[in-house]
Structure formats: C-alpha cells, structure tokens
Design a protein that fits this description.
alpha/beta, Peroxisomal Thiolase, Chain A, domain 1, 2 domains, four-stranded mixed β-sheet, 13 strands, globular, binds acetyl coenzyme *A, Beta-ketoacyl-[acyl-carrier-protein] synthase III, 3-oxoacyl-[acyl-carrier-protein] synthase activity, fatty acid metabolism, lipid metabolism
Length: about 300
C-alpha cells in the first residue's frame, strides 16, 4: 500500500505587515530585508485568532479538496511550536471542532520541520494499513513569541497554517522515499528562551544551506530518480538564498522552485503546506509530477520526501 496526499489547504491571517511597516518598529530597511531574505511582507494573526483558529481553517480547506469527511479521519496531527496552550493540544481542539469523532489526535513539536515529521509519521500508519485517512496540519502563530525589539529575528517571521489529508493511493503514486534527522547539539542556535525566539542567524544559515540541498538530493536518489527529474521543489520558506541553494544543487529551472517567502515570511511548520496548497491551486503541481518537500528547523531538525503527485 502506498501513502499519498489526497487534498491540501491553507489559511493566512488578513493583516499584512510590510517591510515598510517593520521600518517603523525596529532599525531596519526594506532593502536589507529583501536582499538578505527575499521577504517583502508577512501576515500577523489578530489577538482573537490563536494557532488552533488558523489550523482549523486550513483543515477545512484540505478536507474539502480531498473530498473526505471529518468522520472518516483516523488520526489528526498538528505540527506547531506555538500551541494555544500545552494541553489540551491544538490537535484535540481541531478534532472537536471538526467533529472527527473516531480520530486520535496529537501535536508534533519539530519547529519548522514539523510538517515533514507529520507527513512521514502518517505514511507509516497508512502503509501498515493501521489507519486510512490522516490529517496533518502545520500551524504557527510565531508573532506571539517574537521579540518585536530584536531586528535580527522579528523581520523574519509570520503567522499561518497549511494542511494535507493523506491516505492510500495507487502503487505508482504517493511518497517514494523520505529522510528525517536531528542534531540536538545545534539546538542553542535557534531556541525559545523565556517567552521569545533567540537565534544565531549565521549558524542556522550554515546548517540550512548544507542540509536542505543534501536532503533534497538524498530523497530523489533513494526514489531512483535523477536530480533534474524533479518537477517541483517545495523547500521550507525561511530565506530565498537557502531555497536557491537547494534548487541549484538539484540543477532544476527557477520556475520549478516554490516561492512564497516574499508574501508570508517564515511561517515555521506552516510554510511547506502553505506552499504545497498554493502549488496545487495555481496549477504548478500536476498529476504524475515528481515533487520534493524539504524542511529544516530549530532542534535542530530536518526532513524531506520525494513523491509522485496524484491518487
Ligand atoms: N535590518 C538591518 N540590519 C540587520 C537586521 C535587520 N533586520 N538584522 C540584522 N542586521 C544586521 C546585524 O546587526 C549585523 O550587523 P553587524 O554586522 O554590524 O553586526 C548584520 O546585519 C548581519 O549581517 P549578515 O551576517 O551579513 O546577515 P546575513 O547575510 O547572515 O543575514 C539572516 C542574516 C537573514 C538572519 C541569515 O543569517 C539567515 O537567514 N539565517 C537563517 C535564519 C533562518 O533561516 N531562521 C529560521 C530557521 S527555521 C525555524 O525553525 C524558525
């Protein structure tokens, strides 16, 4: 049995904070942010909207696209580092709001690589036949742990949610290969300390610019394809320079790289599923395409899959 993606969804809060708005908050410039990161604006959730609200909207969108009813879900996983509270989990709140009455529910904490951890966990349950339909949501409201006085970090992040419904697909489709990893010795470079994010940007950059290209190549080779066979690359949207490094390592054309970091900034666990959902909706991802999803994050953590799109 092969596991694949049956439907995707995403949600980004309405409020837009541009780089010009950031210039009024900290000593920075649109030019610095754009050239160093590729970010032009980000979305910020309102005080009334918490992570579970973002996650719920993305989930509804994914269930509709998949044509799956909430009652048919066996498991709900929410990847987040900014849950509404530590318990009840965001996934339990979603289970209740959706009325997914036979679903188990758990949150996953792997920072920006969280959605990849969720997808790869879902694959195991589906391929063993234990579960049929699994909902994975990546959702973060990083704005609530952002230090709005620290220009090194506050310009980078945004809020949002993305989701995918996974289930069995035909033999030639679905997830072909995966890679997951962690290196706790690098945890100090990107962490929540007290109530805020602290980051050694240069160290995280060095790690990411090595790991994302390497993991992308590894999953393509494990799947038995050549690097340049990749039709669409969806990297974690943290910094355009890191994303470009992965694209160049695969040797694929610029149009085959998913880019929305300009619109949303780094939305942590939400970034890959938002880009995936947009790629499906704007027709960039087509049936039978070889798609690579690859992420890295605090922990340090990373994860990647190569998959053949379609049911
Ligand atoms: N505006 C203006 N100047 C700034 C800003 C800002 N917003 N932020 C930092 N600077 C200054 C610093 O103070 C420093 O000045 P100094 O040299 O006088 O000390 C200088 O700019 C730093 O410049 P560089 O080191 O050349 O910046 P770099 O090219 O490394 O870019 C960046 C910094 C964008 C943070 C980069 O290192 C990066 O993207 N790192 C990876 C970060 C990342 O991906 N984090 C998310 C991980 S995923 C997750 O789990 C959340």
């Amino acid at each position: 049995m092969k596991a694949g993606i049956l439907g995707t969804g995403h949600y980004a809060p309405e409020k837009i904070l541009t780089n010009f708005d950031m210039e009024k908050i900290v000593d920075t410039s649109d030019e610095w942010i754009r050239t160093r990161t590729g970010i032009e604006e980000r979305r910020i959730a309102s005080d009334e909207e918490d992570t579970s609200d973002l996650a719920y909207k993305a989930a509804l969108n994914a269930l509709t696209e998949a044509g799956i009813k909430a009652e048919d879900l066996d498991l709900i996983m929410v990847a987040t580092v900014t849950p509404d509270q530590s318990f009840p989990t965001v996934s339990c709140k979603i289970q209740d709001r959706l009325g997914a009455n036979k679903a188990a529910a758990m949150d996953i904490s792997a920072a920006c690589a969280g959605f990849m951890y969720g997808v790869i966990t879902a694959k195991q349950f589906i391929e063993t036949g234990a579960y049929k339909h699994v909902l994975i949501i990546g959702a973060d409201k990083l704005s609530k742990i952002t230090d709005w006085t620290d220009r090194n970090t506050c310009v980078l992040f945004g809020d949002g949610a993305g989701a995918a419904v996974m289930g069995p697909v035909s033999e030639e489709k679905g997830i072909l290969s995966f890679e997951l990893g962690s290196d706790g010795s690098g945890g100090k470079h990107l962490a929540q300390e007290g109530s805020h994010i602290v980051m050694n940007g240069r160290e995280v950059f060095k790690f990411a610019v090595r790991q994302m290209p390497e993991s992308s190549v590894n999953v393509v080779e494990k799947a038995g394809y050549a690097k340049e066979d990749v039709d669409y690359l969806i990297p974690h949207q943290a910094n355009i320079r890191i994303m470009e490094a992965a694209r160049q390592r695969l040797g694929i054309e610029p149009e085959k790289l998913a880019v929305n970091v300009n619109k949303y900034g780094n939305t942590s666990a939400a970034s890959i599923p938002i880009a995936l959902s947009e790629g499906v909706k704007n027709g960039k991802i087509k049936d039978n395409d070889l798609v690579v999803l690859v992420g890295f994050g605090g922990g340090l953590t990373w994860g990647a899959v190569a998959l053949k799109w379609g049911k």
